[in-house]
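Sample entry (215 residues):
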Amino acid sequence: MPRETAAARRARAAAVLEGLRACYPDARTELDFGTPFQLVIATLLSAQATDVSVNAATPALFGRYPTPEALATATPEEVEPFIQTIGLFRNKAKHAVACARRLVEHYGGEVPPTVEELVTLPGVGRKTANVVVANAFGVPAIAVDTHVGRLARRLGFSRHDDPDQVERDLQRLFPPEQWVFLHHALILHGRRVCAARKPACERCAVAPLCPSRRA
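Predicted structure, serialized as C-alpha cells:
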C-alpha cells in the first residue's frame, strides 16, 4: 500500500474534522466551572478520574473554597473530605492547596493565561494547562489525554506515544482555530465510539477515513 502523502493526510484530516463536527457540533469541556481558578482545580482533580465524579464533588468544594485566597488558607486534610470520592484524593488535595498558594503568592490570586506560567503551578502539567488556556481564555490549544492520543494514532495522524509529540503532530495537521474543537470532539468520540478495548467502528462516522478501522 503506498505511503500517504502529506497533502493526502491533510485532506483526510480536514474530512475527519468535518465528520466530527457533524457528530459533535457543540463539543466542549464536560467539567463544570465558573472561573478560571475553578477550571484549574477541576482539571487537576480529573486526572485518572471521570468528569462525572469531579462534577459531583466540586460544588461543595467550591462552595467552601471559591477562590485561590480561600483555598490557600486550607490544609490538605481539610480539603480531603470534599474530594474523597475521586481517585488519588490525598495527593490531589495537596496539589490543590499548593496550587492555590502559589497563585496567591506569585500571581496575585489570578490564574495566568499562558501554558508556560500555568505549568509552574503544583499539580499542573501541560495537558491541564492546555485545557485551561483553551476553555478559560479562548487560546488555541490541544490538550492530549488518553483519548486524544489514542485516536490520533488510530487515525494515522501521529505515530507517537509521547503526548507532547502527539500535540505537535496534530498542530501541524489542523489550523489553530480548530484546535479547541478538535480536542473536545476527539475526547467525546473516544468516550462514546472509539473505545480503547473495543472501538465501535460499525457506528463510527469517520471509519471510512480511518486506517485502523476493523472490517
